[in-house]
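Quick entry between incubations.
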Amino acid sequence: MGRVLAAEHDPYEISPASNPWASHLPALLDLLDGLARNAVNDTNATSLGFLNHLRQIEDRVLAANQGTAAFLERLGDIDKLAAGQEQERQMLDRALHEAIDFGARVRADILASHHALRSISGAIEQMNGELVRIGRISKEIGILSVNASIESARAGDAGLGFSVIAQSIRGLANDTQSITERLRPLVHKMHSEVQANGFEAGRSALDASGSKLADQLTDQGALLSEVAQKMAGMSTSYADLIDVKRQRNAASRKAGEQLEDEIRSALASAQTGDIIRQQIELIIDVIGQMRAIAQTAPDNTTVDVQLGALMESIANSYVMKIQHDVHQGVTGMAAAQPSEDLPRFELF
Amino acid sequence: MADILIVDDSPTVLMSMEDLLRRFGHRAIRANSAEEALSKVAGGLAPKLVITDFHMPGKNGAELIAALRSKGSLRFTPMLVLTTESQRERRNEAKAAGATGWLVKPVDPKQLEAALAQLLPAA
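Done. Structure below.
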């Protein structure tokens, strides 16, 4: 951007050399030209920078909106899956309660059957014991009747009646013994059958209940397996959702930070407009000083001195690169250093 | 949160600085000239920080700082001068008038944040 001022390039054509305007005005005008160029360049840079920031903001907003739309779409699927999972969970809950109730009923039935069979078996055993006692008693009565017959024979005629009674008693004892003997195998058979067939029947009932229970548990196992698969799918979906959410959160946070930086940069860029205004005001100020010198300086020597002072003031004040180059090109003197070396913030 | 008086004749700079200060958790009180700033201080405003442009119609930034320093309530209040890169000489002038430091326009948000952290550590 710096201009190289050749000696033959003098668009203002002011001479002769004795006139101090001839030696200073072209350089001053070149410096003013540099200032104006700075203003134009800054304007362009500001506009481009501002547009660039706004474009980046727009891109980030669009990206954020797309991410949000995808996230909401994914969230809709998760809602449907969650509703289905809830239905499956309710079905499973009902099936499990049915299984528990059925098992409880089967257990109660089996326990009741065993209890009844045990009670019957006990009664038959007790009955068998009583029959044994009856048999023993009838034998003792038989012996007593024999003894009574012997005693009645010793009594002679007086014992004839008693002998008849003794014989009748022996006959009853024999009958009782006979009935007892016949009953004992029957009771034994009943006891054996209760012991064998009764408990066998209980086992059969248990087997039938167990089979039914097994069938139900098989059905519910299949249902549980299906539910488990859906739950696994649900877990995967939830994991995906959490991952997507985490990614979206991270992306949103990053996008937000970038957006904030862009907005701050855009706001900072807006300040450059004011810098340009001040540069133009400085140009106007320099022109005003030149006009004052032209109007008030009493002679060429004074003009020479004042214009020289003005140039040095500009050189010391304006440190932008282009003015630095122009100043060196015109005067051959080192101007103030370019601004890149200066800090942008300092506490005194 | 601190009240910060921002003085500039440019509406763009005022708007920009106000927004930046708000983002950093502070409240900006705007004045578009040194005279308006002095009037607000005379009305009882006691900002924790003053940030003023240098080049303004009427009193410039250095003159404003000198005037504010003469007020007892703002004698020790930090005051920053906003300058452009081409106004290095003005910084010295501002320093002589009592400025605490300077910021180059356009103000970099991070440097403004750093300046606020140094000047308003408790805010």
